[in-house]
Amino acid sequence: MVLNFKTVTLPDRRLAAARLNQGLYSLLTVPVFAMLYAITAAGLFLVIIISLSGGRKIVRFLIGKWSELVFLLMGKKLFVSGRENIRKGEKYILLANHASLFDIVAITSFYPEVSWFGHERLLRIPVFGQFLRLTGYVPFREPTVRNTRNMVRQLMERAGSGSVALFPEGTRTLDGRINPFYRGFIYLFRTRDISILPVTLNGFYELKPKNRFYIDFGSKLSVVIHKPLGKEELTGKSDDEIINIVKSVIESASH
User: How much is the pLDDT for 68?
Assistant: First the structure.
């Protein structure tokens, strides 16, 4: 009788370890989401009361602290570089790559003063939709952002004299690569005294992409805040040139 022993290769071991991690992450994701929703609901109750009394600065401060708490509860450390590029008193159009539901939370953790522009469906997410409304969120209903002049005007009215943020890809990436940019933000840049603030988000596709249920608790998260691009850098540039410049800056720190 011949005994046939199957050799377990390194790729087999890695695959088995990956499947084990996926199982553990799936089990952990449900209680983590439940905890996040519970804490968010309690925090929103407090924030709404404060907002009714006109305490806008306090509301923004609490939004920032809540965002930090979200990552703390997931056991994640968010590394942010380039904070010095956000200059006090300056107004920006913050443009970032988009991979995860947690992208907005990451940005509000270090820049809670910013108001948001994005898809209407996010407002239908329980609890999180209320959080977005508190940030001055302006929704768009169409699947693209090509014709956004009216919505941009609404965004500027909502934001007042502050900064605004949007994802120029229009939706979350499905494969981890940065998608082509729409040009809706250029109208805002050309008609306002405002600079573009490029931001690169790393690790968020691995953390929780659009088409996956579980959170990858082993992913490493980092944010790079680039130097602002103002009128002096972009004057005389065509729309396509501006898009290429901004996209190249964001991609330069992507990994």
Answer: 92
Chain position carrying tokens 């009714």: 52
User: Residue 44 has what pLDDT?
Assistant: 73
pLDDT at 46: 75
For residue 254, the SS3 value is coil
CA atoms lying within 13 Å on the CB side of residue 9: 3
Domain at 107, CATH number: 3.40.1130
- Full domain range(s) for residue 76: 10-252
Residue with tokens 């981890």: 176
From residue 95, alpha-carbon distances to 59, 80, 203 in Å are 23, 16, 17
Task: In whole angstroms, give the CA distance from residue 58 to residue 227.
Answer: 28
- For the chain, the domain total comes to 1
Residues 6+ apart with CB under 8 A from 202: 220, 221, 222, 223, 224, 253, 254, 255
Residues of the chain with pLDDT under 70: 1-21, 51-55, 127, 141-161
Residue 177 burial (10 A CB sphere; 0-12, 13-18, 19+) = exposed
Instruction: Specify the pLDDT at position 5.
Output: 47
Alpha-carbon distance 207 to 215, whole Å? 6
> Measuring CA to CA, which residue among 199, 148, 164 is closest to residue 178?
199
What is the token pair recorded at 130?
């209320």
